[in-house]
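Notebook entry, structure prediction.
Reason for the run: the old model in the group folder had no record of what sequence produced it. Starting over properly, with the input documented here first.
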Amino acid sequence: MPRFRPLPILTVFTLLSLVLLLSLGVWQLKRMEWKAELITAYGQRGAVTSFRQALCGDHDGAFGPRITAPAPLAGPQLRYYALRDQPGWVRVGLMPAPRCDADDPQRFLFVESGFEDLDGNLVSRPEAWRIELLPRPGSFVSGNDPDTNQWYNFDRDMMARALGTDPERVLDMWSRADLGLPVSLTQTPPAKHLGYAVTWFGLALALIGVYLALHIARGRLGRG
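New structure, fully documented this time:
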């Protein structure tokens, strides 16, 4: 008959480690599915020819439609730090947001008008836009410096005041250049998450193998 006398401390440690490794593997599979759904949603988002269609239309999904329309942008602009193909500054200004109803008050929308390198040279201008919620403040970034027009956190109220506009009249979203799939989807595509999941599951199998081999070596697992 099989004989198995488990080592108590090692067994507890192994079980806890297995739960952790399997949980991480399952989490990566869920991330893979979530990323795949986002990529599909991006491909199905459609396109519009006016900012009013994008703001007032009924658009489902995580991404707004591609906007191919002129952005009536005038006045001063801010420089918001971003990392595209290279580190640089996104030029951000305000444009009057189109009214969805005639009785709606006049609101304003942040709009990207260009991207410049750290030396201030214009690298590109948007040819199309998409509307997204304002970027979330980063945890490990420098503070904003309005005096030198250097912005590292997208602070709606401070940025609106710097542009001479009442923050209450500015929408909590912005129109950014539509440059293809977001970096969050291209840097870690679904295939990478699958690879991570396989790694975690492989470590779990290796741990089981080490656990059994140690018990066999010590005569605690075998036939009686």
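Summary: The CA atoms of residues 42 and 144 lie 31 Å apart.
The old model has been moved to the deprecated folder.
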